[in-house]
Amino acid sequence: MNQIELKKYVKKLPSRPGIYIFYARDGSAFGGKKSQKKPLYIGKALNLKNRVKNYLKISDIRLRRMMSETKKLDFITTDSDIEALILESQYIKKYNPPFNIMLRDDKQYGFVGFTHSTNSGQAKKYPKIFITHQPRKESRKWKVASGKNKKLPSTFHPQPSDFIGPFTDVGALRITLKLLRRIFPYCTCRQLHNNFCLNYHIGKCYGICCLKQQSRIINSQFSIFKEKEYGKSIKTIKDVLSGKRESLIKEFEKEMKKLAREKKFEKAMELQGKINKLKRVFQNAQLINKSRAFMIYHKGSATLNVSESLQKLLNLPSIPRRIEAYDIANIQGKHAVGAMVVFENGQSSRNEYRKFRIYGSSTSIYSGGDTGMLREILARRLDHPEWSYPDLIVVDGGRQQLHVVEAILRTTSYKLRIPIIALTKNKRHVGEKIYIAGRKDPIPLSDLTTPVKNLLLHMNAEAHRFAISYYRKLHRRKIIN
Fold it and tell me: Where residue 402 falls among pLDDT bands split at 50, 70, 90?
């Protein structure tokens, strides 16, 4: 296929997510019989037209050879990039295109593994999910990172069983699993606990799957129920990654109607919620892209930073080049920690991140609540003038948290005048609106420009991630000791 022929195909391509397939010409060394269409290469795209257009400017000798062996280009559109990722995996597995292997370089495709155990125990009841580049079904020794690098008990240290793949984009695969886990929880703990883990408290784990002695904490009936629910989660994730989304949703809807007929309305509503969340994951065509990073726009060689939009929103005299975001992590006030993340010119500056252990919270419940914790970490942060002061502060919370930060800035001996934004979430823990110092009414996130909204959400999520990772580290250390 020459460039003129490819341009004709590009004009017909939609600007939608999907997969594209280069087919071999008749007589090609990579082709099959004349009556058969042999795929040479299968790829995925968030925007099919833009992606395939790149093949007009190829310089790689392998790509040139592939184009010379190509007779036809075909495509299949999907509703989202996640669906494109899964469909690409299915087609690569089915057709094993030669150039998908040749163009890999040193990269290895990702596979999702589901563990099992040949003996009884929690590992058999509660399989784990992991990503690997080398799927193997033979016995392997699995090590777990811990303070003393100890091996886990065999019942909690299973061998891999089933694999789904290959997936060309491992980063997108990780994000997909992360999104699915919010709807269908499963265990990611590396060791057993005496008490419920943090993920259980935030709805990402059933809790009983990583307890050392379940009988002392929960009754057997509850344990059997959770075991079944866990099994359903694992099966659902397998079905989604295997491309059975439509049949899965139909099955859920059928079960939901049955529960409603039986007047089990609470369970029916819970299932309806899962159906809606699953549909939203696949309906958002840029979900993976937004999860990786916020938008940055270019004008010629200069980058138009989203901070410029923030300057207009807040009516600031200058662009906020350094932004600090804060979050708190704790369970009912215990082992509380705080985190500060820094963004400079719209990019995360990890060497500037700071973490704070809230004093006294490791042994008792913190009496000041979340606002008291925020007050403490802000006061301690401002005691470090050697750290550059921010042009903007973003905190997780509402009007109350906004007033706390304002009070700290006023009472500090430095008398700082730093703009503040408080980001409020709804019941589903999704960003909903922002409070801005000096303004009476909040602003819905939907009213903001896309780059500003994405930047604020990204900073808030990064602060939350950093705080949670520090909390887990301290919590693990306490359990081990």
Answer: very high
- Domains in the chain, number: 3
Nearest C-alpha neighbor of 475 from the set 209, 199, 206 = 199
Give percent above pLDDT 70 in the chain.
77
Query: Where does the pLDDT of residue 297 fall: very low under 50, low under 70, confident under 90, or very high at 90 and above?
Result: very low
- Do 324 and 339 meet the contact criterion of CB atoms below 8 Å apart? no
Query: Strands, DSSP E only, in 237-370?
Result: 297-299, 302-304, 322-331, 334-344, 347-348, 354-357
Per-chain mean pLDDT for the chain: 78
d(CA 53, CA 75): 13
Which carries the bigger pLDDT value, residue 319 or residue 138? 319
Q: 248 lies in a domain?
A: no
Q: Of 65, 82, 102, at which residue does a domain stop?
A: 102
Write out pLDDT tens, residues 9-41. Answer: 999 999 888 999 999 887 666 665 554 578 999
Residue 336: φ, ψ to 5°: -70, 145
Residues spanned by the domain of 444: 304-480
Within this chain, do residues 54 and 132 fall inside the same structural domain, yes or no? no
> Are the C-beta atoms of residues 179 and 287 closer than 8 Å to each other?
yes
Is the distance from CB of 80 to CB of 285 less than 8 angstroms? yes
Q: Is 252 inside any structural domain?
A: no
Can the peptide bond before residue 14 be classed as cis, meaning omega within 30 degrees of 0?
Answer: no
Q: Does pTM surpass 0.70? A: no
- Give the residue from 243, 277, 296 where a domain finishes: 243
Q: Are residues 59 and 95 in the same domain?
A: yes
Q: What letter represents residue 298's amino acid?
A: H
Confidence of residue 423 (pLDDT cuts 50, 70, 90): very high
Asked if 445 and 410 sit in the same domain, the reply is yes
Task: Count CB neighbours of 391 within 10 A.
Answer: 20
Look at residue 234 and tell me if it is in a domain: yes
